[in-house]
Design a protein that fits this description.
Number of strands: 23
Strand content: 15-25%
Distance between the termini: 50 Å
Oligomer: single chain
Shape: globular
Length: about 600
């Protein structure tokens, strides 16, 4: 059941628990360019998007929203529009008179980020909060007058200096950043508000949203949520990362509107968002348990080691296909028979087939605990046992040998069943490693990636898994890539460069898709590095908080380079910027030749 919220009116659209979850996207061109903005908005609407957002970095762009609206109406499109505001409260007021919804960032609506380290006593802190109230009330009054909704959109990458100094770069800091503004809204009896807690890290994102809901409940607030993983990137990575964060929360009844932020043309975000919603519609909804140890922080399940599985080992990949994905092959290969066994690889065979062969690099797979207990032969190293969810509490009531790995098959079940099983294991102090398995028969591989990310990947965000096993007869070779990418994006097994790239918007002064592709082409062979490619300074320095290197737009045709949070070189002509990035990586000893 969805979390109960107020209904927020956005033109003729409603957001909240009484209404279906809405999809949206954002244009990438400058909002000062009327016709290109209209064209992109139409592409988003035609793809099925229900809301379109435009950046308005100044009053000039905010005023031009009226021309964009009129142009859309002339072409037969009267759906609601959203203005995205950073740093310019007056632009927000102008926009609120034109569009149906305004998004502000509490980290920079009033505060000017200087990355200063400063001690705040209670009096000084409250003085700054009072400044927020003075400026924010003007926007609230305009929204009331013009029947305009408001999104208070916190970004992990752009928290104010005040919040950073008091709470740090944390989910709690993100929540408090929004609550400062929410309390003003409540005092002014304004409830047409949507909240968001976005981060490029899905783990931070889910913890922040859960914490926000708990905090709102404690102060008797029931506002709707807009969900998104910001700077998700492109391709499968972007879809997986978004499905991990958005899907986890939707499955817990949290979320009323969503955006999949891809470094691609904006209309491609909508089909991915719809596939996430399609998956959630097929699942039961189970309310978030805020008393769970994992609700607000990452906690890895304790397990002992069985060969290279469990304990401190990274999660293994099991596959039904022997194909190598780039430089990675699966750790174990499942085969139905013992023919064509390669002595340099490890195989899992059905118990009956395994019992007939005497190959050291093969291990048995038991279809049930009953088959295992009745078997005449067992491996001294690893025994894989499939568990029946419906009988776990009856069959797992005693300690098992320390050479057993359990397989939990999510096919025909849901992520909640896996969570319940792991919770039971922990309560019973059963510390055998666990592999999550899923069988998918979709022809649409994007749908498989999204479904598996929600079914299985979301559990790795919670620290629960020791291995992943995805099978799909129609896409066997691509499944190996998918398994590794799910582990990469849950940050449980890093096998390649991790890219944090924003979806672009009208603030970006260079071709972000082309630049991201160019950065990837030159650096994708560097294993284990995190590289951020950001269009502007709004979220760039903050979202790069845990990135090793950052490439950030600093003006038309110019780039600034960061090492961690430190600005190394600014205003580099974009034609030289990738070479300068490579030079910076080499200078710091992180470069290896392809």
């Amino acid at each position: 059941m969805r979390r109960k919220t107020v209904s927020v009116k956005i033109g003729d659209l409603f957001i909240g628990s009484k209404h279906d979850v809405k999809t949206q996207s954002m244009t990438t061109v400058s909002t000062a360019d009327t016709e290109p903005s209209i064209d992109e908005a139409i592409r988003i609407f035609n793809a099925g998007g229900q809301l379109v957002r435009f950046t308005a970095p100044s009053i000039k762009e905010a005023k031009n929203l009226e021309n964009i609206r009129n142009g859309l109406i002339k072409k037969g499109y009267s759906k609601p529009l959203v203005a995205d505001i950073h740093f310019t409260p007056n632009a927000a007021i102008v926009a609120s008179e034109i569009v149906e919804k305004v998004r502000i960032n509490p980290g920079n609506f009033v505060d000017k980020k200087k990355f200063e380290i400063k001690e705040y006593d209670d009096e000084t802190y409250q003085e700054e909060v009072k400044k927020i109230e003075e400026k924010f009330i003007n926007l609230i009054n305009s929204c009331k007058k013009n029947d305009t909704a408001l999104r208070i959109g916190t970004n992990h990458g752009s928290l104010s200096d005040r919040i950073m100094n008091k709470f740090g770069d944390t989910p709690l800091g993100m929540v408090e950043s929004a609550m400062e503004f929410l309390r003003v809204c409540q005092n002014e009896n304004f409830d047409q508000i949507v909240l968001s807690m976005k981060s490029s890290n899905p783990i931070v994102m889910i913890h922040a949203y859960r914490l926000l809901v708990k905090k709102m409940e404690s102060e008797k607030m029931i506002f709707p949520l807009h969900l998104g993983v910001t700077e998700a990137g492109d391709g499968l990575d972007g879809r997986i990362k978004s499905a991990l964060g958005i899907g986890t929360l939707l499955s817990e009844g949290l979320g009323d509107t969503i955006r999949v932020s891809l470094t691609e043309d904006p209309e491609f975000e909508i089909p991915a968002a719809e596939k996430i919603l399609s998956k959630i519609e097929s699942m039961p909804i189970k309310k978030s348990n805020f008393n769970n140890i994992r609700a607000f922080s990452y906690y890895k399940r304790e397990s002992f080691e069985v060969e290279n599985i469990g304990n401190k080992n990274h999660p293994i990949v099991i596959s039904n296909d022997e194909s190598v994905f780039e430089e990675n092959s699966p750790d174990y290969i499942f085969k139905l028979d013992s023919s064509l066994i390669n002595k340099d690889k490890k195989y899992i065979l059905p118990y009956i087939e395994w019992s007939k062969c005497n190959l050291e690099n093969t291990f048995p797979y038991y279809d049930s605990v009953k088959e295992f207990r009745k078997s005449d032969k067992k491996s001294e190293k690893i025994n894989f046992i499939k568990l029946n969810f419906d009988r776990i509490k009856n069959t797992i009531n005693q300690s098992f040998e320390k050479n057993i790995v359990f397989v939990l098959d999510v096919t025909s079940k849901s992520r909640h069943d896996l969570v319940d099983a792991i919770n039971f294991f922990e309560k019973q102090q059963i510390n055998n490693p666990v592999v999550f398995k899923g069988d998918y028969n979709e022809k649409d591989f994007e749908k498989i990636a999204i479904d598996a990310s929600i079914d299985i990947g979301s559990l790795f965000l919670e620290g629960m898994g020791n291995g992943i096993w995805i099978s799909c007869s129609s896409n066997a070779k691509k499944v190996n890539e998918l398994s590794f990418l799910i582990l990469q994006n849950t940050r449980t097994r890093i096998f390649k460069t991790d890219y944090i790239s924003c979806p672009s918007c009208g603030r970006t002064k260079f071709d972000l898709q082309e630049t991201t592709a160019m950065v990837k082409e030159n650096t994708s062979h560097l294993k284990g590095l995190k590289i951020s490619v950001m269009g502007c300074i709004v979220n760039g320095p903050g979202e790069m908080a845990d990135a090793d290197y950052g490439y950030v737009g600093s003006g038309t045709g110019f780039i600034s380079l960061y090492k961690g949070k430190q600005l190394i070189k600014k205003n580099i002509p974009s034609r030289h910027a990738v070479d300068e990035l490579i030079h910076l990586i080499k200078e710091n000893g992180d470069w290896i030749d392809p």
